[in-house]
UniProtKB/TrEMBL annotation:
Pathway: Amino-acid biosynthesis; L-arginine biosynthesis; L-arginine from L-ornithine and carbamoyl phosphate: step 3/3. HAMAP family: Arg_succ_lyase. This is Argininosuccinate lyase. It is an enzyme of class 4 (lyase). GO terms for molecular function: argininosuccinate lyase activity. Residues 363-431 form the Argininosuccinate lyase C-terminal domain. Signal peptide: none annotated. Belongs to the lyase 1 family. Argininosuccinate lyase subfamily. It is found in: Cytoplasm. One of its GO terms (cellular component) is cytosol.
Length: 458
């Protein structure tokens, strides 16, 4: 028996039933559906559309259903299409025809928009907490590794020496923006859709503000057609999630590179690696590889929902049921990725000797030499040319800049004096870059301190 069966003479085709049902995946919204229904029914009584007795009967029926679902005693039926109808039908079976009053002044179109918003608000809060967990690990690791210098890269060519902590804090900064994007997305998710009805509101004198207060929404939507046709909040969340995954993916890529024998910069704990079925020596960085890989599916979900929405006339269309699986999958993919990344990073160690040897190799201090000449009055362009020649000389002679004798330096410019050796020391090179946002120890420590305090505030 369908809740909308009145208009129909023939039974729904079995395949159509299976094809149109969303109960297989929207059952995870049960908690929000019930929470929304309870708030709705309280409002109906408050607005004198239902009696207090009817309200109480409906609420206790819904509470029983909640318990049954949580105890795995509820049987979801595909013939009842979705979570909304499964619960409503069960309510009527339980408490009789008074259960049929629950859907007064409501449509599944505003109901599903409500459930999705309640769900996403919770998920955003969970994900924000996970981001902070990862940020905390980043700060701890930055503090722990504060004295380790590493090569910084552009074009994946050694460029200038930086501090490992500085590199870690680069990701911290990216995560901070990800966090902000979620706060922003939350603001637009935090708007009550209920009351928009199927598309044109309701003739009942309902109190939408009351429902908003009950459910913790800080605004009420202002156009019923927009409300039931809007999935911007899902799109925004998926865009923020894609950006976050992109960041984790880049970091993962670096961990994969750094753990290779070619780089050999870090050690990822055995607990986060796996072996090979054939090559006994292998220790593979599967976790960062998989995080990098799963980024693709999150991008896919963003493209999917954008594409679903692009051709839809107002207001609700069944196409919009396709908003769910991608969102649910994104939420679990994202949560898994952040959680694992935090745990893995906490157990990742940096190989100081290798990192510093590498930072000293590859002329990462060449800019320092040019700056040295500039300090002695040589225009930067000329200095660049002189140092370029000096480097070429070293490449041919298979020497480092620090191997050059003062006599050799003087062949390139008579401005070079004994103090050049101090200038090109990589520790000096890093610590004299003490501008705001630079890699100098003092500056990095300042950022760690400020961010620790920020994290504590939340
Ligand atoms: N299962 C539907 C969805 O997820 C609920 C809304 C259905 N509304 C309707 N008029 N068929 O979108």
């Amino acid at each position: 028996m369908k809740l909308w069966g009145g208009r129909f003479e023939a039974e729904t085709d079995q395949l159509v039933e299976e094809y149109t049902a969303s109960i297989g995946f929207d059952q995870r919204l049960y908690k929000y559906d019930i929470e929304g229904s309870i708030a709705h029914v309280k409002m109906l009584a408050h607005s004198e559309i239902l009696t207090l007795d009817e309200r109480d009967k409906i609420i206790s029926g819904l509470e029983e259903i909640l318990e049954e679902i949580e105890n795995d005693e509820f049987e979801f039926e595909i013939g009842l299409e979705d979570i909304h109808m499964n619960i409503e039908k069960k309510l009527i079976d339980k408490i009789g025809s008074v259960g049929g009053k629950l859907h007064t002044a409501r449509s599944r179109n505003d109901q599903v928009a409500l459930d999705m918003r309640l769900y996403l608000k919770d998920q955003i809060n969970d994900i924000k907490a996970l981001i902070q967990k990862l940020q905390k690990v980043l700060l701890e690791s930055a503090e722990e590794n504060i004295d380790i210098i590493m090569p910084g890269y552009t074009h994946l060519q050694r460029a200038q020496p930086v501090r490992v902590s500085h590199h870690l804090l680069a990701y911290y900064a990216k995560l901070k923006r990800d966090y902000d994007r979620l706060i922003d997305c939350y603001k637009r998710t935090n708007v009550l859709p209920l009351g928009a009805g199927a598309l044109a509101g309701t003739t009942f004198n309902i109190d939408r503000e009351f429902v908003a207060d009950e459910l913790g929404f800080n605004k009420v939507s202002q156009n019923s057609l927009d409300t039931v046709s809007d999935r911007d909040f899902v799109i925004e969340f998926l865009a923020a999630a894609s950006t976050l995954m992109m960041h984790l993916s880049r970091f993962s890529e670096e961990l994969v590179l750094w753990t290779s024998q070619e780089f050999d910069f870090i050690n990822i704990d055995d607990a986060f690696c796996t072996g090979s079925s054939i090559m006994p020596q292998k220790k593979n960085p599967d976790v960062p590889e998989l995080i990098r890989g799963k980024t693709g599916r999150v991008y896919g979900h963003l493209m999917q929902i954008l594409t679903v929405m692009k051709g839809l006339p107002l207001a609700y269309n069944k196409d919009m049921q396709e908003d769910k699986e991608g969102l649910f999958d994104t939420v679990s993919t994202l949560k898994g990725a952040i959680e694992l990344f935090a745990r893995m990073l906490a157990k990742t160690t940096f190989k100081q000797q290798k990192l510093e040897e590498t930072a000293e190799d590859g002329f990462t201090n060449a800019t320092e030499v040019a700056d040295y000449l500039v300090e002695k009055g040589v225009p930067f362009r000329e200095a660049h040319e002189v140092v370029g020649k000096t480097v070429l000389h070293c490449v041919k002679e298979e020497k480092k800049l620090s191997d050059l004798k003062l006599k050799e330096w003087k062949e390139f410019s008579n401005k070079f004096e004994d103090d050049i050796y101090k200038k090109i020391d990589i520790k000096t090179a890093v610590d004299t870059r003490n501008i705001i946002g630079g890699p100098a120890k003092k500056e990095v420590l300042r950022v760690i301190k400020t961010e620790k305090e920020e994290l504590k505030k939340d």
